[in-house]
Each structure stands twice: as structure tokens, then as C-alpha cells.
């Protein structure tokens, strides 16, 4: 499945993390066509990242809150935001800031080793076949 293969999917997830839950708000925030948004929301709910909860019967309207699986996607999105801020932002600065609620500071994602806490980079990490790899 090509779940995250386009910009709209990542932007829908970004808005979900910003607290957007309703179709019309997603559409207003993103300027996305209704059919494209419907397809992305269907894809994200089908994959388990968003839930679909009815909040009105007539007409039927739904909210799309993050699931546990969706909330667990945050570090991935934060890393993509950090990369975009470093390589794609213009001179006016990044379009969104991540503020750590616990300390109040603006921050960015880092990837550290879960065992020793050291920074993980392309230069100091190797990928090896894991037990789930079948040839």
C-alpha cells in the first residue's frame, strides 16, 4: 500500500496533529479539493492512522481523530518537518513551529539511539536484514 506517497497525506496528518478533526476544517486549512480530501481520509482511516466518528446524523458528518497508531506517527512527521525547515524553508522562516509544551521552547526532531542515546546519522548507522525479512 502506498499510504504516504503524496504531499496531501502528510499535510492531512500535519493538520490532524494541529487539532483539525472535521472535513470542512481540513479543506479550509489545506485548500484541497473535496474528492482528494475524501480519498486521503479514507486511506488514512483504512490504514488505522485516523478514526472516523459520526458527530451528526442529518446529514451524516464525521470527525477524524488520530488513533494510537496515528499519534505514534508524530516522530516521523516531526523529522520530515525538521528536514523541510532545513532544506526547503525560504528566508522568512519555517511555516510551522513545534513548541515543546513541557519546557515552552520551540524545538525540532532528533533521532537518537534507543540504547545509548547517541545521535543516529547516515554515517554511524547501518541497516541489516531483520527477522521479518524474507527473501
TrEMBL record:
Any matching Pfam family: HxlR
Domain HTH hxlR-type per the UniProt entry, residue ranges: 1-92
Keyword GTP-binding found: no
Keywords: DNA-binding, Transcription, Transcription regulation
GO MF term (any one): DNA binding
InterPro entries membership: HTH_HxlR, WH-like_DNA-bd_sf, WH_DNA-bd_sf
Top-rank taxon, per record: Bacteria
PANTHER family tied to this protein: TRANSCRIPTIONAL REGULATOR, MARR FAMILY, TRANSCRIPTIONAL REGULATORY PROTEIN
Name of this chain's protein: HxlR family transcriptional regulator
UniProt organism field: Actinophytocola oryzae
Amino acid at each position: 500500500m502506498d499510504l504516504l506517497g503524496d504531499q496531501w497525506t502528510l499535510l492531512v496528518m500535519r493538520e490532524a496533529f494541529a487539532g483539525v478533526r472535521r472535513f470542512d476544517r481540513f479543506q479550509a486549512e489545506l485548500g484541497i479539493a473535496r474528492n482528494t480530501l475524501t480519498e486521503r481520509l479514507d486511506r488514512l482511516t483504512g490504514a488505522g492512522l485516523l478514526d472516523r466518528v459520526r458527530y451528526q446524523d442529518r446529514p451524516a458528518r464525521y470527525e477524524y481523530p488520530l488513533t494510537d497508531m496515528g499519534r505514534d506517527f508524530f516522530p516521523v512527521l516531526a523529522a520530515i518537518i525538521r528536514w523541510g525547515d532545513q532544506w526547503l524553508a525560504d528566508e522568512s522562516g519555517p511555516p510551522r513551529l513545534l513548541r515543546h509544551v513541557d519546557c515552552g521552547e520551540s524545538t525540532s526532531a532528533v533521532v537518537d539511539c534507543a540504547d545509548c542515546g547517541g545521535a543516529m546519522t547516515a554515517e554511524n548507522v547501518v541497516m541489516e536484514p531483520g527477522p521479518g525479512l524474507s527473501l
